[in-house]
Amino acid sequence: MTTHGGHEPVFCTIIPPHVLDKAAQSDDPVLAGPARRTLERDAFERTHRRLTTVLGAPAVALPESAAEGKALRTIYDAEHGQNLPGTLVRSEGSDPGPDATVNRAYAGLGATFDLYLKVYGRNSINGEGLPLDATVHYDEDYNNAFWNGEQMVFGDGDGEIFLDFTLPVDVIGHELTHGVTQYTANLTYFGQPGALNESMSDVFGSLIKQYSLGQTAAEADWLIGAGLLAPRVTGVALRSMKAPGTAYDDDVLGKDPQPATMDGYVRTGRDNGGVHLNSGIPNHAFYLAATALGGHAWEKAGQIWYDVLTGGELGAQAQFTDFATLTVAAARARYGDGGDELQAVLKAWEQVGVRTL
Length: 357
Description:
alpha+beta, six-stranded mixed sheet
């Protein structure tokens, strides 16, 4: 598998390690057990991903329909095992079956494909009609979902902290967007470029949700993973783009640690240099720009962010300032110097404390 700049794909999960670490330390084995097993499984999959990149991923033969801008979705069932992809349970064009998880995965892949094609003219995540494969019912009480560079994988959750990972469509869109980033800017998964990588997935995951619901920026909740937390958890989602740091405050998971501005920037060696933490800063900048412009967020703010992600000038080691500067240039190039778009982007980065050059 080739990617932009010769870099290889990384293993990306929706639940950050720091969240699972908290749950794994619980005195309640019902909570700690699944969290520990999920961390162990994630570590195994991460190692497997590295081995696959060394050996080279298998080439994907694209069907004729791929060139025509048609989705090609395939859903597999791991049947609570760990072998991928699992048993084929639904193919493109087939009717919904009795398994709601299968149907949600199929619909979520379709919602993601639709936003990229209909709004941005992108034919699947690689721009060339890549088939979208997903596996559901992965492992026992598996508290995560991930993109492994080739396909989507969804756990069912443990029912105590997390529910079925196909429930929020933005989780599906988030993970598939890691694939889009893989095929475009291929942002290094560490430090600020890693936080930008995560933020790209949150931004477009949220836009996929808003597009599928027909919501304006004012109507959207700007939450990532709403509906994923089990009833016993005190919180509303995994992250909030509107108010980073407020998504949850729970006795098991702790308090949402995301900063909203550079004043709260977290310097850490954990979580690949805080990629799931500091992503709150560019997330908040996008929210500010999108709500300042109003209307549908995918039309103007989303177009500017997409232009930067896919424009070829965003380096794999890009820092926040680099990305912010490119969004200003993209806003100016697409909408001109005198428009609200440029001012909204400039003000958004100023508000979160990221300077533009």
